[in-house]
Amino acid sequence: MTTLPTIHGPVLHDQLVTEQDLPPAIVARAQEHLADFKSARTAKTIRAFENGVRLFRAWCESGGHGWFPASPATVAAFVASIAKQPFRRIVTKRGKPTAITTGPVAAATMKQYLWAIGLLHRSADLPDPTKTGKVGFAVDAFERAVGVWQRQAPALTRDASDRMVAEIERRLADAQADGKPASPYDLRDRALLLVWRDTLARVSEVMRLRWDDFERYPVKASGSVCIRRSKTDQKGQGHMRHLTAPAVAALEAWREAHAAAFDQVLAAPPDPDSGTAEDARVQARRAALAATSGFVFVGVHRAGITPLSDTAAIRVLNDRAADAGVLQRFSGHSVRVGTTQDLLADGHEVAAIAQAGGWKDIKMVLRYGDRLLTERSAVAQAEASRSRKEP
């Protein structure tokens, strides 16, 4: 019995087993291909592949279908099924088998599953069942039945973010009036909100920012930042984004607190009673800390200082919203959506907004601003013009 290849942990289940024997040459090709795939793609992309294959396998096994290689008829049935009804499957959470319910799913999610199924087959030089007429018709039927509309993230508009920043600045002012040091969390979160808003960046892009990516203009108080790598720029060509004067000032204030936090931890003397093994661990932690010091947005906690995660950044967003009385839950895309809508409402050109947000075309700008652009359509403008002419 041959086994399927593994990347980034078990790809297809807790046990790497196949339904049928595959020739060793095919298995070897798949192993080589998926190893190359791992080295060329981000961890998020790898997880999407693994999750798609696991889900397809679970569905096949629940209905007694062959999953690898899979026939076009099986894949077409999978597409039809996830459009109609949920199904239960077992996943491992915290080391324990857990039953969860999956589906029905959106069209974009369905296509991600098909991508994973196709990649698995192509890795072994097997015919790709997703590129057949039968599956194509199943996809068309899915999209006609379910629709291709995607729910948009709730927008964090300028009004809401201004309230959040104002609340942070109130806390900083209160601390100063009381003769207390400024909270590093307040300094960090103010800089985070302003930089995030100015750059229209994805949460993962903001979390990867390093101090070397920033530049302050020598004459003006504003500056710029380089987004070195993004979802649409996997090879790291980079894209410059403008930073307003308030964002630059907030960054400089946070940078002082950032440096002080690292200096305090690095200056801590070693334990004189520690042994050689403990000394080695301390040195390893100090090396990791020094590597972390280049990241702009970090978390300071009992375990030390670590780069802020995407999840932690979204938590900061929602905690600060709650503090400011903004009764809305936001996601990692909320700042990007809200700033786009603000710029459209201010009358800025769609192409200029696309450039500011790092989009290669204007499609996403149009989607994020669909409602606002409708209000500025030719019909709306003509109606407004007629209203002004009426006595």
Automatic annotation (TrEMBL):
Residues 151-382 form the Tyr recombinase domain. Keywords: DNA integration, DNA recombination, DNA-binding, Plasmid. The keyword Acetylation does not apply. InterPro entries: CB (IPR044068), DNA_brk_join_enz (IPR011010), Integrase-like_cat_sf (IPR013762), Integrase_catalytic (IPR002104), Integrase_recombinase_N (IPR010998), Phage_Integrase-like_Recomb (IPR052925). SUPFAM superfamilies: DNA breaking-rejoining enzymes (SSF56349), lambda integrase-like, N-terminal domain (SSF47823). Residues 21-125 form the Core-binding (CB) domain. GO terms for biological process: DNA integration; DNA recombination. GO terms for molecular function: DNA binding. It comes from the Bacteria. This is Tyr recombinase domain-containing protein. It comes from Azospirillum argentinense. The lineage of its organism: Bacteria, Pseudomonadati, Pseudomonadota, Alphaproteobacteria, Rhodospirillales.
